[in-house]
Amino acid sequence: MSVATMHAQTLVLVRVACDDGIEGWGEATTIGGLNYGDESPESIKVNIDTHIAPLLVGMDARYVAKAMAKIRKVIQGNRFAKCAIETALMDAQARRLGIPLSELLGGRLRDELPVAWTLASGDTLKDIAEAEKMLALRRHRIFKLKIGLRPVTDDIAHVLAIKKALGDDVSIRVDVNQAWSELDAVVGIAALEAGGIDLIEQPLRAENMAGMKRLTDRFSVAIMADEALHGPLDAFAMATQGTVDVFAVKITQSGGLIPALRVGSIAQLAGISLYGGTMLEGSVGTAAAAHVFSTFGELRFGTELFGPLLLTEEILVEPLVYKDFMLQVPNKPGLGVEIDRQKLQALRRK
After folding, report:
1. Each residue of 191-206: b (16+ CB within 10 Å) or e?
2. Which residues span the domain enclosing 227?
3. Which residue in 43, 180, 190, 326 has the most C-beta neighbors within 10 A?
4. How far, in whole angstroms, is CA 137 from its chain's centroid?
5. Any idea what the CATH number is for the domain that residue 75 is in?
């Protein structure tokens, strides 16, 4: 990415144990450490253990909304930590009721989700070969290219060469991760639009809302907000001002499952398209996001829930199922996943 290169991923897993014997699991995972956002694995764990967990002890686990209202009233920020807690509480409640988590969130409208794959090596021939392999395996036919580290002209040449090689039946998008100035963005987006690229993700700094709106008004290619979108209040402001065409919804960045649903509702009311984003979560966070995204009435640009496919270690007894370019949304009670406790203990940070 333009902000960091990742060689490993640290997952923060939260287990909520209830007096009735029900357990729930949640995950808070960040991208690129503090280069990307204002929470780290270490801060998430410390703040949950020290400040958030004591608020929950003794509360009735069946009343998730009441528990989360208490946390949100007392704890400022900490969106990722709050998401993990809410996920664990809702996982436990859905298990208690014997229903998939999606049915606590309004009910799923789809049982599978299209999944993009990120091409981020920066080597054009290597990225083309990787994409062709994914197509042959029927794993992905949507590809997002990470750009922004190199001069704009170099990035454009790289992207358009890949688009030409893969053809019109494949969707190509780019993620700039806030790296461009507005002048660079005008040049770059014009070339990408002419070359048939489908989506431009967060070309400008998150705080430059006026610049994002100018780009959205100027070009017909879809402009998407990611780092600028931190929950329902940001979604409402952008929807009101017509800042972007697409929202990248992330459950952690939204501050939880219910706030992510609200972001989706605002988008749909405002005619803004949706894309299911990722923080490169492992299987627990990915399953939670899949349950949320399965309830969206509109998901025009698919999802990028490929986090577990990047990891070399699996923490589930049965991995999530990816087939025919889709992620299958789990349909067992709760998140629909089972943690491999022995594997988890072996991987746990000492």
Report:
1. bbbeeebbbbbbbbbe
2. 112-328
3. 180
4. 23
5. 3.30.390.10
Instruction: For residue 157, give the CATH number of its domain.
Output: 3.20.20.120
State how far the Cα of 189 lies from the Cα of 174, in Å rounded to an integer. Answer: 10
The total domain count for the chain is: 2
- pLDDT averages per 10-residue partition of the chain, 350 residues: 77 96 96 81 96 96 97 96 98 98 97 95 93 95 94 96 95 95 97 97 96 98 97 97 98 97 98 96 97 96 96 95 97 98 92
Any domain includes 268 = yes
> What are the residues facing 316 on neighbouring strands?
339
In this structure, the answer to whether residues 49 and 174 fall within a common structural domain is no
d(CA 26, CA 12): 8
pTM: 0.95
152-166 and 182-194 helices, crossing angle to 10°? 20
Kindly list the distances between the CA atom of residue 70 and the CA atoms of 15, 74, 101, 232, 288, in Å, as whole numbers in the listed order. Answer: 19, 6, 22, 18, 22
Q: Which of 45, 82, 144, 146 is catalytic?
A: 146
146 classed as catalytic: yes
DSSP-H helix ranges across the chain: 41-47, 53-56, 64-74, 79-97, 124-136, 152-166, 182-194, 209-218, 232-241, 251-254, 257-270, 283-293, 307-310, 341-347
Cβ pair 25, 335 in contact under 8 A: yes
Same domain for 245 and 171?
Answer: yes
Could you tell me if residue 118 is inside a domain? yes
Q: Does residue 200 fall inside a structural domain?
A: yes
Of 328, 314, 252, 323, nearest to 283 by C-alpha is 314
Residue with tokens 């577990």: 308
**CB 278, CB 77: distance < 8 Å:** no
Both 308 and 231 in a single domain?
yes
CB atoms within 10 A of CB 76: 6
